[in-house]
Structure formats: C-alpha cells, structure tokens
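Support request, please re-run this one:
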Amino acid sequence: MQRMHLLASAILVASLTASAASTTENWTLGWDNFGEPLNLTKSTIRWSVAPTRKLTVTFGLAGAKPSKLYQIGINFFCETFPANFGQYPTDLGGGDCQPLTRQGVTKNYAEVDLGVVTTDRHGNGTFTVVIGRSRRVPTRSNSLRATAQAAM
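Re-run finished. Output below.
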C-alpha cells in the first residue's frame, strides 16, 4: 500500500501529565503533503491522561476524501525512544531516533502507528485509542506531532 506521508498535523506538548479534563487540538496542514482536503475548523484531536497514566486520544477528520483510509500515528521528536509506547511498538524498534527532513527542517524522530480512520461518504471519520501505561517518554522528547497518512 502506498501512502502520502503526513496529511495533517497537530503539535501537542509531550509532557503528558495526569488530567481529568480533555484537551482539544485542531489539525493543521503540514509536514509534506498540502494537497489532501481537510476542514481545519472541524477536524480535531481530543486527548486526556487518566491518573493511571493511560492516554485516550480521539482523532477526528472532517471534509477529507470520502470513503478513504487514513493511517493515524504519532511522531515523537527525540534523541532516544523506548521500543514501545504503551502497547504500540515503535516503528524502528526503539533506541536512537532517526533523522527526518520536511519543509527544509531536519529533526530526529520515532514513529508509532496507532490505527486507521475510515471516512464516510462525506469525508468524516473518527478513531479513538486508549494507550496503556508505558515507560516515560524521554525528557528530551519535548514535542510530538500527530499524523494522518492517506492511503493511495
């Protein structure tokens, strides 16, 4: 399956402290594909961290291409990263983070794929994931980017 890498992104703060309230972020176009349709005012990422350190995230796409699959993941900008983020394996198995250049900027990253949003006939869809308690994200990992990769 071919993919167009990283349809849209939302920058979140990686210090995932326990909070009963959820935080909602808006998607922004970015990273390296600006051609996919997306309603930026209605597409959101809602997340919260339970006192047990379980992270719940709902990825919502609105106005994307109808009846299409979008792979959902997180890019952590880091120097090193554990082999797993909760129950999800890191794409390259953990260890040293790998360099990635987009829009003329190079950063080291680790990627974790979480699941798929399937859009309906109007281009809308959601995916919710609960990420189990995991080893701490390294302190040098001070930002992350949620990603939606369009399947061809």
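The chain has a mean pLDDT of 80. The chain has one domain: 3-50+64-119+131-151.
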